[in-house]
Design a protein that fits this description.
Blueprint: E1 11-14, E2 18-26, E3 29-35, H1 45-52
Antiparallel strand pairs: 1-2, 2-3
């Protein structure tokens, strides 16, 4: 894992096509801006985990 320190206004370029800009650092939170080609998906990790979890379905037991 690459670890970087950036200040507000500074950028990181990923793969030559994605730019991540630090927009704001305030009260222990960082606001990031992403610029990428339209075909490049960008997802928040916690939402991706929620979507990828299998749905819990009730067990279908045979009823006679």
């Amino acid at each position: 894992m690459l670890v970087l320190q950036r200040k507000a206004g500074q950028q990181v370029i990923v793969g030559g096509t994605v730019t991540v800009t630090v927009l704001e650092v305030k009260r222990g939170r960082v606001k990031l801006g992403f610029s990428a080609p339209e075909e490049t998906p960008i997802h928040r990790e916690e939402l991706l985990q929620r979507v990828s979890k299998p749905l819990l379905r009730p067990h279908s037991a045979g009823v006679s």
